[in-house]
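Reading a protein record of the kind used here takes only a little practice. To see the layout at work, look at the sequence and tokens printed below.
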Amino acid sequence: QVQLVESGGGLVQAGGSLSLSCAASGVMFAINSMGWYRQTPGQQRELVADITSHGGTNYGDSVKGRFTISRKSLNTVYLQMNSLKPEDTAVYFCHAANRWWGQGTQVTVSS
């Protein structure tokens, strides 16, 4: 059973930075794609960033140039979020292969 454990998030002022991490356990092979989606009430989940096991990355248009996703071990990913804006406020969900999902972590950016 694959489990994703997220950490990070919290409250920050606009212009500040936060980081998130997500570690997958219960799997002995490299999960091809891991990353983050985010969701606000009444809205669909939107892609924040993905990274493949080979390091290929994909970012949502709204975060390009501000967020950086990285992968420093087999199945652990990190999301560095800089120049945060109030519109980045959401619950951020880690995913693995778009099949397994974390419980979500709140990111709140105050203006």
User: Anything to note?
Assistant: The chain has a mean pLDDT of 95. The first strand starts at residue 3 and ends at 8. Residues 33 and 108 are 26 Å apart (CA to CA). The chain is about 0% helix and 55% strand.
